[in-house]
Amino acid sequence: MPNVRTPDADIYYTDSGGEGPVLLLGHGFFMDSSMFAPQIDALAGNVRVVAWDSRRHGRTTDHGAAFTYWDLARDSLAVLDDLEIETAIVGGMSQGGYTALRTALLAPERVQALLLLDTEASACTDGEKAGYKAMFDQWCSDAPIEPLVEALAPQLIGGDSRESWAPWIEKWTTSDRRAIRPAAECLIERDDVVDRLSAIEVPALIIRGEHDMSAPAVKAKQLYDHLPLAVPVLTIPGAGHAANWTHPQPVNETIAAFVTMVETGWL
User: What is the CA radius of gyration of the chain?
Assistant: First the structure.
């Protein structure tokens, strides 16, 4: 699969191909582009799905410089440039949503619509920063990783199926656990873009899991209230933070309908 080289990173991405509308997807923290396999499988043929790996995740490599979600937004645009795609529906899950929002603010002419999965627009509170720092200090230490990943899976993915957690637990336990530190700093120190959302004048679909505590309902409502062309929030019953992974059918059906409405001008 292709990589696109920028001054700061070599960005890995996959492309389902085809002539359909383009959906560019960014994954959540500790995940990679393979988390969108259920969407690629369901939408391929009607939607051209391009999914990419963020810095310090998956198969993307970088040159060690600190980065922000604005830098990742530029990375996503570099992927579109490499594919010679002028405009796309830009989406993401959790931190991928942070990036998608900044992509729309950075290059509004490139974004047809937004797909926001279990995400938010605000910065970390002081309490959240302290909690994240404690967790990442443990993660990047020599402490046994097994208890950490066992606690992380239900929180980060959701649901109660060990089958759905297993691929990620395997990746977490076999990866270079210290490599995540620059991405952690990016997450913890992200800026607040809530007051800028009114400038994003494209249709926006917001989907969240019913039991998602990382991006709770109040955060989804905040997105809906501030994005001028957002459609009503879809809550997936029984799902947690990675609703697109654990409950793909209702997510895929909604995405397909949304893409059709964007393409036909119904939104």
Answer: 17
Q: Which fold is adopted by the domain 3-122+192-264?
A: Rossmann fold (3.40.50)
pLDDT digits (tens, 9 = 90+) for 6-36: 999 999 999 999 999 999 999 999 999 999 9
> 68-101: per-residue pLDDT in tens?
999 999 999 999 999 999 999 999 999 999 999 9
Do 92 and 204 touch, CB atoms closer than 8 A? no
Q: How far apart are CA 50 and CA 5, in angstroms?
A: 16
Q: Which residues contact 61 (CB under 8 A, 6 or more apart)?
A: 9, 10
Q: Give me the residue spans of the domains in the chain.
A: 3-122+192-264
Nearest to 259 by CA among 208, 205, 199, 209: 205
Helix, strand, or coil (residue 252): helix
pLDDT in tens, 107-122: 999 999 999 999 999 9
Query: In this structure, how many other beta carbons lie within 10 angstroms of the beta carbon of residue 104?
Result: 25
Is the full-model pTM beyond 0.85?
yes
